[in-house]
Amino acid sequence: MFRRVPTVDIAEARRLLDDGAQLLDVRRDDEWRAGHAPEAQHIPLDQLRARSGEVPTDQPVVAVCRTGARSGQATQFLRRAGLDVVNLDGGMQVWARTGGDVVRDDGGHG
Question: Coil, strand or helix: which one is 4?
Answer without folding.
Answer: coil
